[in-house]
Amino acid sequence: MKDKIKVGFLVNPIAGMGGRVGLKGTDNVVNKAIDLGAKPIAPKRAKEMLDEFTSIFSSYDKLIWCTASGIMGADLLTDSGIKNIKILYDIKSKKTSASDTENICKIFLEKKVDLIVFCGGDGTLRDIFSIIGNKIPVLGIPSGVKMHSGAFGINTVATAKIFKNFIKNNLTVGDIEIMDLDENLYRKGQWEIKLYGVAKGIVEPTYVQVGKSTFEEVSDNLIKDELAEHISEELDNNKEFLYLFGSGGTIDYIAKKMNLENTLLGIDAIFKNKNLKKDLNEKQMLELFKKYDKIKLILSPIGSQGFILGRGNLQLSPEVIRKIGIENIIVISTPSKLAHTPIIRVDTGDKKLDKEFAELEFIIILIGYRFSRVVKIQTNNF
Amino acid sequence: MKRNPTAFLKEEYEELVRNGFDWKLKELQGPSSPKCIVDGKEMIMLCSNNYLNLSNHPKLIKAAIDATKSHGAGSGSVRAIAGSMDLHFELEQAIARFKHTESSLYYQTGFAANAGLIPQLAPAKEDLIISDELNHGSIIDGVRLSKAQRAVYSHCDMGELEKLLNKVEKNNPRRILIITDGVFSMDGDIAPMDEIVKLGNEFGAMTYVDDCHGEGVIGKDGRGIGSHFGIEGKIDIEMGTFSKALGVVGGMIAGSQDLVNFALNKSRTWLLSGSAPPATTAACTASINVLENEPEHVNKLWDNIKYFKKELISMGFDCGNSETAITPVIVGESHVAKKLSDELIKNGVFALPIVFPMVARDKARIRTMMNAGLNKEDLDIALNKFEDIGKKLDII
Question: Which is it for strands A371-379 and A193-203: parallel, antiparallel or unpaired?
Answer without folding.
Answer: unpaired
